[in-house]
Amino acid sequence: MEQKPHTFLKLRYCLTTSQHYLLSSKKATIRSSLFHLTIKIAACSTKCLAEPETPQLQPNFSPKNSVQVLKKWGCNDDDISKIFSRRPSLRKINVVQLHSKLNLLSGLGIKSSDLFKIINSRPRFLSYRLDHCFEERLDYFTKFFGSKTVFCKAIVRNPSLLTYDFHHSIKPAIALYEQMGLSTKDLIPMLISRPKLIPCSSLNDQKIDYINRSGVSKASKMYKYVVTLIAISRTETIQEKISNFQKFGFLEDEILSLFGRYPLLLTLSIDKVQRNMIFVVGTLKFPASVVLQYPFLLYLNLEAVLKPRIVLARKIQDMGLSPEMKGQAATLKALRMKEERFLKVYVNCHPQEVADELMEVFRNAKCAKRLAVDFKRIVRRGFPF
Asked: Is pTM, for the whole model, over 0.85?
């Protein structure tokens, strides 16, 4: 029987196709195995990075919106209204994620009454991931603060302790201050009171030179304030503040020594220091050096404290009344008084009619604003100070 050539072609095609199919199936199986292995490894590594597993709702709890989740957690209508007004996007947040984050906070000891304080200071707090390195972070801060309770209080004051990068921000910042000689006891109040201490801290040769020239010793109570305020401030900002004092005849060493004794001067704006210095030198006729001994003159509010009291002192002098604010010592004493005591000494000691007249002068002076203060353009240069 004679075989036709196309029969061999068909048979060869079938064999080739079968071999190709077998090889393809084998490769596909290998690929599938590798893909399955990769998925397993990825899943394991993900579980290692994020300690808590995928958040799940309680079996008998199926909330329809974030309001129900917050109420379940203990927030009342007033609290929820305040939270939503501070962060409106929480109305549409994923309820499963919200429930998981609130459970995480409950485990730390944070109550529903603390939530508004947290959202008020950090509106985007619940939008961040809170479970990253959570167990490691919890162990570290529990040892650092001495107890879980103190750590809980610190979170309410500074919620970013749960959101800052643990390995690249928190630990390096704390190590930086420990190298400068600050103890854990000194660092705890600084971390609580200054939220930007962790992300903004940096020290260079120039800043360390400023700290050394401030004359404050490591044993001093002021040392932690000097180090932290200089560390979170920009070098350029510190230089500008030094230059501002130099305009009034101060030497750089005098200024740094003043910062060492009164570190909170570093928190005052250049404009405030300049206006108060002009008032001290121009209006009070005091020498500029008086602020080295009485730096409170730079802290006082110019419009609410300094000007009204000097206006009242001149009115008392014009009316020939006593006691008067005569001389540098009496004026400084009057400026340091609390308002209640000041009015008792210089206003309420007079007959009712005279006291009413003096009180009207004092109130009018307090209400008077600087020219165009309402229209002054506010230039925000960012943190810090």
From this structure: no
